[in-house]
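Narrative of activities, Objective 1.

The group set out to show that a structural description can be obtained from nothing but a protein's sequence at a throughput compatible with the screening campaign. Below is one input-output pair from the validation batch, recorded exactly as produced.
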Amino acid sequence: MTRQSVQEIKAKDIMARNLITVEPDEEVSSALGKMQQHDINELPVISAKGKIVGLVNYETLLKKRSIPMSTKVENVMTFPPRVSEDHTVMEIAETMLSSGYRAVPVTDKEYIVGIISRTDLVGIIPELKILKGIEVHEVMTASPHFIGDKDAVDQARSLMYRLDVRALPVINEKNELVGVVGLKDLAKITSHEKNRQTRGDTQGGKTSSRKIDVKSIMKFPAITIDKGSLIADAVKLMNKNKISTIIVTEKGLPVGIVTQYDLIELIASFKSEEQVFVQISGLHEAEPEAYDMMYELIQKSVKRMAKFVTPKVFSIHVTRQDAGSEHNAGNITIRGRMTTEHEMYHITTVEWDLALALSSMLSQMEKNMRKDKEKSKKKNN
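Output recorded for this entry:
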């Protein structure tokens, strides 16, 4: 079913009900085995009475590499936020972003009734009309970090932790894209190393991650999508191939990367202003005052625009150029796209100040709408 609004879809509509769980006194080896067997990233930890007491995930197990596989789950589990069946997908997306969890339990009091993963949440994007026109380049992270196919697995693991990412594009000596390595690939190596240590094998042997190169564990070929494709197509590719990261290309060369995290941000960033969905991207998460300023300017402008058109979706992307000084001209570029009932308006402005750039873009868009309205009147008269 195609839906008009992200506010219409609730947790109960998309949550998984057939749960794979683990108990607090089970061993880490059991939890990791269940995750690998069922190809899932998180396991709810359930007490004997059926109450949720925590969550265990790949990140936790990988970061605590020194913990034996015989360790009880209760010693490594975390305590995620919870949502109810009536939470909207926007609220769930915001919860995931603010907490850093890839999945959140859906509860009724203290009892778990379902779980929502990033994959579940991202899967709704093709159903949302307001996201149909968004292209991949508007969401992607440009110039992603790469890892060499001959680099050690330990280097990939360290880079992922430092960048806080779950996957890295892999290139060869010719800088050609040859694959992708992710946390799940690293988890298999970590699990094997822990089993060897448990058996009393010496560390640093042939299977040590210090000696295994990325090429031997990466997935290939890399799943790619053109930067001009629609984001809904990227989601379909992710779901089809059961991946959380897709490489963005232009003329066959890698120029960016889109992850489930980027798509969760996309869902969470839509805010209703006077019945218009406004999506702002490109700002740093530490700039809440910038969001407030922008929404205030947009709200005033949308009221004036409503005299000429019927605004539906307003997407704005901010790009900061490093010009050597924050006062240099051309430091900030704002691209705006307004979808109305009958037309679509695109405006790009470049200024040294965020508020000035936004005001200029809004002003130009209003002028274009006014001109179109006047042309329509003359045509009808």
